[in-house]
Amino acid sequence: EKGGFKHFMLKEIHEQPDVVKNTLMEFSEIEKVVGKFSKFKRICFVACGTSFHASLVGKYLFETLLGIPTDVLLSSEFLFSEGALDKDTLVILITQSGETADTLKALKIANKKSETLAIVNVLGSTATREADHVIYTRAGPEIGVAATKTYVCQLVSIYMLVSAMSGNDKLLAELQKVPDHMKQALENEDHIIEIAKKYKDANDFFFIGRGFSYPTALEGALKLKEITYIHGEGYAAGELKHGPLALIDDNVPVLAVVPPGESHDKTLSNIEEVKARGAKVIAVGSSKDEVLKSESHDIMGFDGDISEMLSPIPYVVPLQLLSYYISVERGIDPDKPKNLAKCVTVE
Ligand code: M6R
Questions:
Q1: Could you give the ipTM of this predicted complex?
Q2: Pairing status of strand 115-120 against strand 133-136
Q3: Helix, strand or coil for residue 244?
């Protein structure tokens, strides 16, 4: 049932290029959903955990490509923002399981005042029955507690949604190349195993990124905490000097997400800052980026042109693999991390 892989998580990581392709086939269904939308002036994403990180990418996409003001709220905090809901707001709930208690509670509240759209992986789950509109991701069942393939499919669905709403065919065409970009990270597995062995005994890690790479940094840190029990802190690279820089020294590796593009040079200067405090830097970026290579101790690189805007989908793959292999090196079962359930059904 694990298809020859040691764990479900590893199998699910490897399934990603294929499930992304399956999810891409849903574009015409998404166009139908978009055709039914009323007019709205604001978007509010609501989600927990990994689905929250997918929502953060959604915010930058909606604001960059459609200019629609977009908020992202944690489901458990949504209650406190109810006052700002109205009929001009589209509330988008992202939930793999469709059964997360906090997200279902938020959906109930949102349904009273606003139009709701749920992006869900599990067919027929409660969220799909209660939302006004539904988009299905086609990740297939995810058994590992850590969300991997469902995250990348959520991202693909959001990119397609924005593409359908904006008529941006270029984005849609670029999305078709994402499965091949993801395969590159999977082909680099041996190199990632070496990096995992090198850093497996760290007690703390920082993950940094800007703009489209900030959610990737948060997601990398969440994976690390969840399945390796190492403290991983995801931070907007530009916020480092507003406090956490005080924690950086030669015992704290820093993983920097640095695709070529607008945010590149600024994140590079953050790399210099952490190196000046002794930190080892592991970078995710382009294999052609000679400056990044010379500035970092280890690099998990991608060939080919991946736009900054689309980088969140392939760039998360090496981070998933890194946490997976650190978990295995530390003798942990990544499929069943302690104290965690696949679906959180209590508020
Ligand atoms: O099923 P949901 O997408 O609503 O679940 C939300 C979170 O519980 C989930 O993403 C959790 O953070 C993952 N285990 C992280 O890997």
A1: 0.98
A2: parallel
A3: helix
Cβ distance 202 to 321 under 8 Å? no
219 lines ligand 1 (CB under 6 A): no
HSE, CB side, 13 Å, CA atoms: give it for residue 99: 11
Q: How much distance in Å is there from the Cα of 51 to the middle of ligand 1?
A: 6
What's the pLDDT tens digit per position in 187-206?
Answer: 999 999 999 999 999 999 99
- Catalytic, 342? Answer yes
Q: How do 42-47 and 281-286 pair as beta strands?
A: unpaired
Q: Is the pLDDT of residue 341 over 90?
A: no
Average pLDDT over residues 122-144: 97
Instruction: Kindly state if the Cβ of 95 falls inside 6 Å of ligand 1.
Output: yes
pLDDT, tens digit (0-9, with 9 covering 90-100), for 170-192: 999 999 999 999 999 999 999 99
Taking CA atoms only, the protein residue closest to ligand 1 atom 4 is 95
Can you give the three-state secondary structure of 278-328, one letter per residue?
CCCEEEEEECCCHHHHHHCCEEEEECCCCCCCCCHHHHHHHHHHHHHHHHH
| pLDDT of 233 | 97
Tokens read off for 11:
């199998």
Expressed in angstroms and rounded, the spacing between residue 10 Cα and the centre of ligand 1 is: 17
